Amino acid sequence: NSGAASRGTSLLALVFEVGIQQGGRIESHGCHISAESGKYISLMWQALLLPCAHPEPTSSQPGGGKHCVTATVRLTPARIYAGTAIAVAAASAAVIPAGPTARQQSPGAVRAALRALRLDNDMAALLAHGALADAAADVLAQAVAVDSARGRTATADLDWRRVRRSTLAALVSDDIPFLLWARLLHEASHRYVLAARRVLSPPLARALTHPASLAATKALLSQIVYESATAVAYLGLQAYMRGGGAAEAWAEVRAKFWRVWVDGLAFFSATYLVVFALPHYSMQVVVDNIASLVFNMYLSHVSHRKRGPPVPHSNSFCPR
Q1: How many C-beta atoms surround the C-beta of residue 301 within 10 A?
Q2: DSSP per position, 35-55
Q3: Which residue ranges of the chain lie beneath pLDDT 50?
Q4: Residue 245 needs a FRET pair 20 to 30 A away by CA distance; which of 81, 120, 131, 279 works?
């Protein structure tokens, strides 16, 4: 049924279909569907993004209600690493901003149309790229857990509900806010440069408006303000969406925030210098999405680790 594939999230599904391994299978309700059938990606993203990908009737509910059955994807860590790397690379190449004359320079009608679509839907493309990176981060975190416990060739039964939860938490706490934050800093820096050149002496203005100075200032503000807020939001949302309620979310933040913030300081200090040194706003978002993929693997591990007394870094990836 070709309509099943089109009902999935088309952009993300297409990207993942490029990178997924051949011969993989998805097993649900006793049905084995080969990757060659073309339904793999559609089903995977429905399980990720829809509240119930495979509702089935159950006699335990009045009136023959339905319950959700989570699909189990037969993959190995090695194949997951390769598939996600190709998928993220392809998505990044698709959303990298182009020059102002890109539409005229693009050879071929199809490529020109795709480039025009990308340029006309800048925010949507960047958010889609961020969502893909968020999903890949949790998938990779689960793959690392299997890899460390049983090796790269072991079967990895991924928890797609956890992937969906982590993706939504990252979108709300980081991807959408960073789009606004980066644009705010980008526009504010232009106003600052103009004001500094009018008011300050030329040597001082050149020093304070140098790209390296601007990048360092943006990085410092992002670490103090932005990273603090996004860490609280991510940890709280993860706990809340697991069904813990507001009290559990706050307890999770209190127990894990400081460690996450310190680790984020170490990771993003250099990362933000690179991100904010880029002149193009959209490129800043793309590079941040890729860097956040790595850090979100760590966040997924921490958020699904049971709370306890503060301990050094643990190598166990144990979902709650």
Answers
A1: 22
A2: GGGS-HHHHHHHHHHSS-SSE
A3: 1-73, 99-106, 310-320
A4: 131
